[in-house]
Amino acid sequence: VTTGISILYIGTLNINKEKHCNRANILNNLITVQIFLISVINIVISAFGIEQVNLHNADVLKQKEAREASRLISANHTVMVFNDSKL
């Protein structure tokens, strides 16, 4: 938000005036740093792939798997249990 406001403000400055030129130069450097930081943060977020985890659904799935394994054991079936549910 501050970057956008800064970009809008720098557009109103007249760089032909000495007073505005110095202010525009400082603001331009500030905007450059802000955009760089935003880019770095976006790269870090993309690299680690932030996902929303629904723990309730995972618990329900584990409970269903446990009930099914218990049912198979009581019916004298061989049961293979894997830690990774993707298998």
UniProtKB/TrEMBL annotation:
GO BP annotations, alphabetical order: cell adhesion; tissue regeneration
Name of the molecule in the record: Ninjurin 2
UniProt main location, coarse: membrane
Similarity field: Belongs to the ninjurin family.
Keyword Transmembrane: yes
Keywords assigned by UniProt, alphabetized: Cell adhesion, Membrane, Transmembrane, Transmembrane helix
GO CC field: membrane
Membrane topology, record value: Multi-pass membrane protein
Signal sequence residues: none
Domain of life: Eukaryota
Cellular compartment(s): Membrane
Ranges annotated as spanning the membrane: 26-50
